[in-house]
Amino acid sequence: MRIFFGLLTLLFFVFICWIIISADVGFQGAIFEWVKRVPYGDKLSHFTLYLVLALLLNMALQGAAFTMEFAFFPRLGSVNFMWGSGLVFVFSVIEEISQFYIPVRTPDGGDVLANLCGVYVAAILARRFGVASMFRFKGLPSGRQD
């Protein structure tokens, strides 16, 4: 199961890289035309692409998480972050920063916000549906071993 989600994540990551490279070289294909025609299509695309990538990576990593302590904000205490969501968000920020150096691209804070929202929803879905426990399942829910 882990290998399946790992390969699926890799394929989806390659798809996103293809989109990024196509945009970097100024390619104007059907996908880009559709995004331009749909109201808020750019933001919806960012949200959806990064939601799916983060969800797949969280599943591939079996819900692995790390804990972060907030010394400056003691009321927050410690917060658990899923590795998949964190890695996808860092990738999205790096990709957005790279647009400063590509003449045909325009960096947009709204894109980063849409990416963050997608990653956040992916983390909520992964926790809600118990991605980590999904990989520890042994036997049937009733306890029967058919």
TrEMBL record:
Protein name (database record): VanZ family protein
Keyword line: Membrane, Transmembrane, Transmembrane helix
Segments crossing the lipid bilayer: 47-68, 80-101, 113-135
UniProt KW Transmembrane keyword: yes
Source organism of the structure: Simiduia curdlanivorans
